[in-house]
Design a protein that fits this description.
Layout (H helix, E strand, L loop, with lengths): L23 H9 L26 H17 L8 E5 L6 E5 L12 E5 L16 H10 L5 E5 L2 H7 L21 E2 L13 H11 L4 E4 L3 E6 L2 H23 L9 H11 L2 H13 L6
Parallel strand pairs: 5-6
Antiparallel strand pairs: 1-2, 1-4, 2-3, 4-7, 6-7
Bound molecules: zinc ion.
Zinc ion binds next to loops.
Amino acid sequence: MRRLSKNGQRGRKTRTSQDGGADLNHEISCVLQGQCRTGRKGKGWKTCESPQAYHPQSSSEAIAILVLANHILANEHFLDGFGHVSIRDPEQPGNFFLSRSLAPELVTADDILRLTLEGDVVGEDTRRPYLEKFIHAEVYRARPDVQAVIHGHPLSVIAMSAINVPVVPVFHMAGALGSGVPVFDAYDPENGTLTRTSEEGRRLADCLGQHTALLMRNHGAVIAAGNMAEAVMTALALRDNCTIQMQCLSAGVAPSALSPALARAAAALNFSQNPLFRAWNYWISRLPQPQ
Ligand SMILES: [Zn+2]
């Protein structure tokens, strides 16, 4: 894969990439201008006013967005020490980017690996990817429309996955859940609930179908979306939706759900440019600034 800056320290001057000396900062300009570990301005996370904020046009931009998404999802407590997020390479759609096995909050551009849809790391990089890389590989293989995949284990999601009650959208931000949220439980017993083979990943992708989110029973969730902002928005909405549903169920009341028409309208609005920009920059503004 393309080798990126070795600079892993917040607030330090960035080095150039190693393949021909191109300046990574220059290439990805706006997307990375606030990403202090690789960004030209280098003083902290900053919001971005370009659609490239979450619509990468190049491999470098995709990596920048992926690093940012790792930090956003950790900061918003969708991911903790475990869980992972990936992005498809816009320049080579048969590849995707995923961090080496590392807590998302610690991920820098230098930790990003390039993988094939078979789940193999490209090149001679021997660093270990996440065991559950097959979730990402098989979803990208099955769904050409998907550009970003998130897998995490929020408690409310695990709770809903463990009871026989379907997730239904109970508020506006969860409109994307209106098409249904399938539950995957066709685990290989020898792997526990971890998806560690292509075959198991394929079963999971089959279960996901054309939906945006899927629960893994007694484990967590998978979100598959057309861009990173949609994926993060859906992940956070799924987590909160599960919390609300569990609160209603704990009170002995089955919550009313958005009708299919209301859910469709909400999803269309949420995934339009203004709400995505607004949310994306809000999440960036909440990231802890480097010391
Ligand atoms: Zn997991």
